[in-house]
Amino acid sequence: MRAIVLERTCKANELTVTNVPVPKVKPGWVLVKVKAFGINRSEIITRSYEGDAPYIQLPRILGIECVGEIADSSNSNFKKGQRVVALMGGMGRSFDGGYAEYALLPISQVFAADIDLSWEELAAIPETYFTAYGSLFDCLQLKSNDTLLIRGATSALGLVTLQLAKSIGSTVLATTRSLNKMNLLKKHGADFVLLDDGTLSKQLYSLYTDGVSKILELVGPATLEQSMKFLSHHGIICSTGILGNKGTLENFDPIKGIPNGVYLCSFFSNYPTQEQMNKIFNHIRQYRLKPPISKIFSMDEIADAHLLMESNMANGKIVVTTTE
Ligand SMILES: NC(=O)c1ccc[n+]([C@@H]2O[C@H](COP(=O)([O-])OP(=O)(O)OC[C@H]3O[C@@H](n4cnc5c(N)ncnc54)[C@H](OP(=O)(O)O)[C@@H]3O)[C@@H](O)[C@H]2O)c1
Fold this sequence. Notes:
Blueprint: E1 2-3, E2 5-6, E3 18-19, E4 29-38, H1 41-48, E5 60-61, E6 65-72, E7 83-87, E8 102-106, E9 110-112, H2 119-123, H3 126-139, E10 147-151, H4 156-167, E11 171-176, H5 182-187, E12 192-195, H6 200-207, E13 212-217, H7 221-228, E14 231-239, H8 254-257, E15 263-266, H9 274-286, E16 293-298, H10 302-310, E17 317-321
Parallel strand pairs: 10-11, 10-13, 11-12, 13-14, 14-15, 16-17
Antiparallel strand pairs: 1-3, 2-5, 4-6, 4-8, 4-17, 6-7, 7-9
Bound molecules: NADP nicotinamide-adenine-dinucleotide phosphate.
């Protein structure tokens, strides 16, 4: 089968397609015929330096998510040919992932996908919608009367959270560092677009003097302590992204760092369930949502797909299809 194997950490333009054997099915694992897969920031990180970490054994097929059909159901309840999505749990890190024509995956990471979407549209869903849905509706407990600030809103994840938040009628303030992308966020339904240029606090308080009720922090620890101050009393902030290239808070003093009467939480997409995936598919059906796709590539164009993500100009989910 054709696959994108990470032999050693490398630059985007060093990624190529190679031929490797189709994995042999084993109990507890199913074989998925991959039709398409989404590209994620974490794969850029694995490809560029995380691949050297002791918990990753190279060579490794990249890819934390994929969509396709069950090729061999092994000892699972899946049927051959059933449409599925798969994500996380070590995909593309502890075991081979979705950048391939076939993926051997633990049953726990594979979910039935009973929704009428093209393979490319479906490929934009598992990791991004699972993270967006969990961050908004589980962690932030988002309601229609909330005012939500999305920091890092032009990311694929940001645009999906914007879409989901607007679908239930919340008011959304969306940030970008780039003047050129302000229109994009307006087009995607943001009520207010704020430029994250060092004057964010002034812009935000001129709109909401008491702050906002909910914040989704996708820039992450780099801006988290500032963002917490933008919350109104009993507001909630969810730290889900690390776009600011900082994964941790050093010397963080929770007593002084978290303002009185606000709540800090986070979301980790490592534990998907069929129940949650069904809720997401129902929500997409109910509100007739279309996943915001940036561009669709072939497997041979994998280097271009990674370069587009690195350019920060994708403005939506990057999808790769396995069909020629
Ligand atoms: N917690 C979890 O389980 C989980 C799951 C999935 C994703 N994530 C994280 O969520 C984030 C979004 O992922 P994605 O794949 O949707 O990203 P993406 O589409 O590649 O994000 C691109 C956007 O990132 C922004 N950006 C890039 N560098 C930045 C910086 N230094 N500071 C501020 N903004 C920056 C740019 O916005 P502007 O140029 O417009 O400012 C750009 O439009 C990532 O950090 C990812 O690791 C976390």
